[in-house]
Amino acid sequence: xxxxxxxxxxxxxxxxxxxxxxxxxxxxxxxxxxxxxxxxxxxxxxxxxxxxxxxxxxxxxxxxxxxxxxxxxxxxxxxxxxxxxxxxxxxxxxxxxxxxxxxxxxxxxxxxxxxxxxxxxxxxxxxxxxxxxxxxxxxxxxxxxx
Length: 146
Ligand code: AMP
Description:
The protein is an alpha+beta fold. It has one domain: HIT-like (HIT family, subunit A, 2-Layer Sandwich). It is built from 3 helices and 5 strands. It has a 5-stranded antiparallel beta sheet with strand order 1-2-3-5-4. Bound molecules: adenosine monophosphate. Residues 9, 20, 34-36, 44, 90, 96-99 line the site of adenosine monophosphate (AMP).
């Protein structure tokens, strides 16, 4: 398997070298808005530790990761009054993975509303900001000082 690249986009976001619209953070994980969302409220949850995907991640990182995924799944469902939530994750290009730092997609779903495709279109930054604020308020996240 290809080695982990410490200069992938999400590694840079975790290091603070690239910006993100952060919705949650703790010692082990970070959650932020997807900039090309497949639905309103689409967030990504990543472990801070290095891993390419589910095939190489340290199992010890999965507990804290899934704990944050659950927090965000409940949070986005409540924040956007959704009927359900999709939690998705892809491993290697053949499965659809495009960023090679393991990440979980958490996407609110509504009855009868299909996911938007991967059009490559960036969301309006102001819209993402207001959606992120809604999520932070709902889960009671005021920043992490770690
Ligand atoms: P995947 O296909 O599972 O690798 O998904 C990667 C996701 O990362 C896609 O949904 C992209 O829209 C998203 N993405 C790519 N670059 C960024 C970025 N700089 N900030 C937030 N999300 C991003």
